[in-house]
């Protein structure tokens, strides 16, 4: 005849089952079901989220160039582009000095005559060995970077004729 199990075995068994029963709550807790209704599906992109843009995306109009936009572009360029392209855009940034392939200077005739959308697309999707910045730089800030690159290019090809007589006379 079998002896009844000692009390310690019963208590042990109950203690083991209690956490297992607790797990069942996970099937009933609030969560996002994969095929839930439109109201709860994550179809709407929350505001403030950086969208992943595609090269050729013209959905973001070019914002008017203001000093605030250029300053924003300077900040973003300093953080995201200068490590390779250098603060002056000559392509000798610190990452390049440490062995990354050197980009062309930004103030070449080719890049100076390139339409702004091309520069925007390069920032969005990358170019050759340069990776894209769609997930790091918001669309409006990409335009700010493009405006700042234009200012950099211009700054290296200023002609005397570009200056007003007052500017020429200034020390
Ligand atoms: C990790 C280094 C690196 C970073 C960071 C980087 N670039 Fe580049 N970039 C390159 C290299 C290298 C090339 C040349 C790619 C090639 O020809 O394969 C290039 C090419 C370019 C070109 C020329 C594209 C063309 O049409 O010829 C532009 C414009 C440019 N980069 C702008 C930027 C801007 C603006 C940023 C910042 C948002 C940036 N890059 C960040 C390395 C970088």
TrEMBL record:
Species for this entry: Gluconacetobacter tumulisoli
Pfam families reported in the protein's UniProt record: Cytochrome_CBB3 (PF13442)
Classification via Gene3D superfamilies: Cytochrome c-like domain
Protein name according to UniProt: Cytochrome c
Top-rank lineage group of the source organism: Bacteria
PANTHER family, sorted: LIPOPROTEIN-RELATED (PTHR40394), QUINOL:CYTOCHROME C OXIDOREDUCTASE MEMBRANE PROTEIN (PTHR40394:SF2)
Domain Cytochrome c positions: 68-153
Matches recorded under SUPFAM superfamilies: Cytochrome c (SSF46626)
GO molecular function: electron transfer activity; heme binding; metal ion binding
UniProt keyword list: Heme, Iron, Metal-binding
